Amino acid sequence: MDFPLPNLRRLFRFIISEARENMAAIERLDSYLSNAIPGSKEAWEAADRAYQEGYRVPVNPRKRDDAALKVLRGNKRLTEERKAAKVGYERWVKIQGIWNDMRR
């Protein structure tokens, strides 16, 4: 599902155009998407919890000693993981929406 969204739309259109021949693929895609969204939401919530528990406020963010840099690196990693998990969830929701619109 790393395709750009226009390519996914095209792929979905091809699958639906021959619905009788692709019934197994349609059912598999339905079940996959229905499982992918809750899984990505759980990953997002886990990353958010890790961010909230692990984020440390640096004493002096302009100070560049080893301890302050370690705190800043940890905060950056947690922030990036949380953002990536949120983007992944939003992408799955968008793909599910495209699939539902095509199925109508």
Structural class determined from secondary elements: mainly alpha
Number of helices: 3
Average pLDDT number: 93
Shape: elongated
- Quaternary organisation: single chain
Strand content: under 5%
Query: Approximately how much helix is present in the residues?
Result: over 70%
Tell me the series of helices and strands, N- to C-terminal: HHH
What are the segments in which pLDDT stays under 50 over at least 5 consecutive residues? none
State the distance separating the first and last CA atoms.
21 Å
Rounded radius of gyration (Å): 20 Å
* Major β-sheet profile: none
- Strand tally is 0
Characteristic key phrases:
single chain; 104 residues; mainly alpha; 3 helices
Structure description:
The structure is a single chain. This protein is an all-alpha fold. It is 80% helix and 0% strand. It contains 3 helices and no strands. The protein has helices at residues 5-17, 23-54, 66-103. Helix 1 packs parallel to helix 3. The longest helix has 38 residues, at 66-103. The chain is elongated and about 65 Å long. The two termini are 21 Å apart. 5% of the residues are buried. The mean pLDDT is 93.
